[in-house]
Amino acid sequence: MTFQSIDAWWWPFLFILVGGWLATDTWRFLGVYFGGRISDESDALVLVRCVATALVAAVIGNLVVFPSGELANTGLLLRLAAMASGFAAFLGLGRHVLLGIAVAIGVLEIGIVLGF
Fold it and tell me: Which of 69, 70, 67, 65 is nearest to 109 (CA)?
């Protein structure tokens, strides 16, 4: 069965829903199952955390350096300043993720309005 095998309006939505569910929830269930049995200081869990952190950092870096959509109309220095200010706010305001995101978005919006 392929993506084009059924010609109904709902088929692409079901295909994406099932494909997305199988790709992510399988690993989530396995993580929950094995997560309780692994020590927080184990080498395997440290490796998993390092890889997950590296993947998130790579996605953020890719969005900042090679943006798409409306973000591509902004300058690299503005995007870097927004990212740095958001990270500084995250560290300085008690490691609150939402505050860091809000500050980064605020700096980006101010820069866009001012024409940077």
Answer: 70
